[in-house]
């Protein structure tokens, strides 16, 4: 980008119109006639190849591609974009506000984030980070805050208290939070004592980097409500534009207004009529070179920001009674066009538009014109390309959505159109009223590499009801949507299947346990499609999962083995079924290769230790102490057994991330850390007992670093209270065994699960309320220990929650 001319002057606004004196030209030595002829031919050829193509080719015909040799530079990864995301703020009838994120192609809600008063938001250029500013009222007064969210996982990265409150623009007006094109700064508008200025925020921490980066400006009647603010790509210039046409060039280095420019808002620059026309909208080109403004009367003005002057002024061919609606102006880069929302007569008084214009800025012609129904109050377009190359993401993002979205003035109905054909793709309905303009941003991208982690799938095992069969609900954790359900038919009602998912998340084992004619069926399913790949019949009398949380069916690390626990009246056995290289669609019987018969112990809790290819069997007999048995996958190696202290009843356990420690969970609650390497070295086993009466439910889970243990506990409530059981989730420090925090107070969580990256804790809720159970899945941020969202589901009697990565 060429250096703007106003960078060359210290103050010097009066010197902008001065001519630059050229240096004397040097004379060439005399040339021979034949050299002059060759030079003339070369000049003529170059003139036709370089200068004339703009006149030879029509505007609709693409120019021939030019082959160039690029300079060796680091090329960012280019990823195809499957979808964009639509953001807007919604207020319900009860007065609560939330930021709603949609997938415009699917019509589904990606996320709802609760917000406080006067919310404002912006996104990083790659769409991976959301910045949300609002203020909340507490006992100590009101607090302005800025929250930063990762839009991949929707975990809150940081919350910062702002010393100045971000100003509150009108509904659907220009944003008060502005992201720099390179993503290196955030600019926040504020208005204090009728004085307007802009603060700069650090996009990494959200903290105030510089207060009042522009010279404070006194508010005027025509500029008190809204301002259009644009940040240049070079990081030096900030342009703010009032609706009365006054444009300020703010020098961020000197913190002063370098120049002010009054844009012509009357139908003619020579008109002496008073300026009564208001700007409908303004957009800046992607290279920060030009600013395009449109008035409600259809006056299109092009401003050269590098030269600080108006380049052209065009009067759009509006019919009588038509006008461009405020804040319904968008921009397309390919072709370079303006997208305008126009009203007809009375609907304009209601703030509605029913016509969409596409004005080509290159040909200066109206390229397309739509008449749409229903009328709309907000408009957003998804360009066919997002070329984003920032130091923060190092990605060049593409979008192939090509959609245009409108909404009514209440935000209750969103209509998605095909940007190329104008066809209506879908209508999204919601409840509430819109509090902001529509923002279409690129969906966050992750590099396609071996280190890339996918989002989670939630497998909710449902025991069903007296008239409903058991099932497994498969939920996408990103969109909160159920993908499909696996229905299981039983002879006995309200009996849940046993489920195990491979660590890769691509296969699901399901043990139906029908026990019809003395048989049980073991099914292998593809998790991407939900289709069954194979099944086999195994022995009956299989053990069942108890309230302690032990699973009788687990899968090995690579999914090549599945362990099925089989119980008899006098003993307990663990069966290892071997499925190797089973092609999809082929059903085959596989013999049981071998089995272990453990001593009298009863049902056991199974854990797979992948690092040593060992199966850990943690069991609690009806009488006597609990035992831990280590079974190697190689039958030639002996099993090892450890008797645990006979203090409490052991219910379940969890392995540390490095698989060196087994944390056995017992009633009390108590945790027994067992170091597996010195298992037979007669080392004393430490015992940590917590000062609370409770009973653990479901599976305990460990954080990714192994420093926090999450427990789901339940305990009796007041006998006179309506709820007979209350509970909570504990976050316990494994270094000193002290309580960090409690999550979900007075909630009965019956099972827990952890995301693959350890940043999200999923808790299955079964709290009794109003004589009915609620079965939401609570999602907590494990770094901040705060509730992120709730995931509803269709389960009737859920008993287990499994968290696994989405299939590749």
Task: Explain what the structure shows.
The chain has 3 helices and 61 strands. The protein is mainly beta and 808 residues long. Helices cover 3% and strands 48% of the residues. The longest helix has 19 residues, at 33-51. The model is unreliable at 1-28, 48-82, 268-276, 385-399, 446-454, 545-550, 577-593 and 717-724 (pLDDT under 50). It has a domain at 456-805: Methylamine Dehydrogenase, Chain H.
Report the principal-axis shape. Answer: elongated
Radius of gyration: 33 Å
Mean pLDDT: 72
Distance linking N and C termini: 41 Å
Q: What's the CATH class of the domain at 456-805, please?
A: Mainly Beta
Fraction of residues in β-strands: over 45%
Low-confidence stretches: 1-28, 48-82, 268-276, 385-399, 446-454, 545-550, 577-593, 717-724
Please name the CATH architecture of the domain at 456-805. Answer: 7 Propeller
The proportion of residues forming helix, as a percent range, comes to under 10%
Total of DSSP H or I helical runs spanning 4+ residues: 3
Classified in CATH, the superfamily of the domain at 456-805 is YVTN repeat-like/Quinoprotein amine dehydrogenase
CATH fold naming of the domain at 456-805: Methylamine Dehydrogenase, Chain H
List how many beta strands DSSP finds: 61
Structural class: mainly beta
The neighbouring-strand order within the major sheet is 48-49-50-51-52-53-54
| Main sheet record | 7 strands, antiparallel
